[in-house]
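Re: the 152-residue chain
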Amino acid sequence: MQTVRLLVIFVLLAAVGYFAAREWRGAPADVVIIDVAERCDIAVGSCVTELPDGGELLFEITPRPIPLMQPLSVVARVRDSRLQPSRLDITGLNMEMGLNRTMLASQQTGHWQGETILPICSQRRMHWQAALLLNDGGKQYRLSYRFYTLRP
């Protein structure tokens, strides 16, 4: 009986500790992933996507074709939506290149912009994933784009 009581207390303390630690760390809200790669090639042109709340997102990375070791302009324009782009995370798919995180700054209502540089890889053709994070104050949405670069 004493063992059962101790086990119950231990489980309760573990649960409280888990949720307290999660709250203390500021665990991210649920993230809804939207794969845009099948509908749009960000390396070829701007991508226009209908957002879950009925609005529209225009997203682009320039110049094109997307070069390595040169400044890239990242632009997100939102129309008729409460969603706000906050950052772009670019990761290598066929080789670990580390996380390339770009914070987007509001330029005017509905227009966010940032700048980044992609590193040169030992592979001639490098495949990338660009994940654009949007927030509405509670829920987060991650739009996933794929592209590749060619090393000169």
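The helical segments are 2-25.
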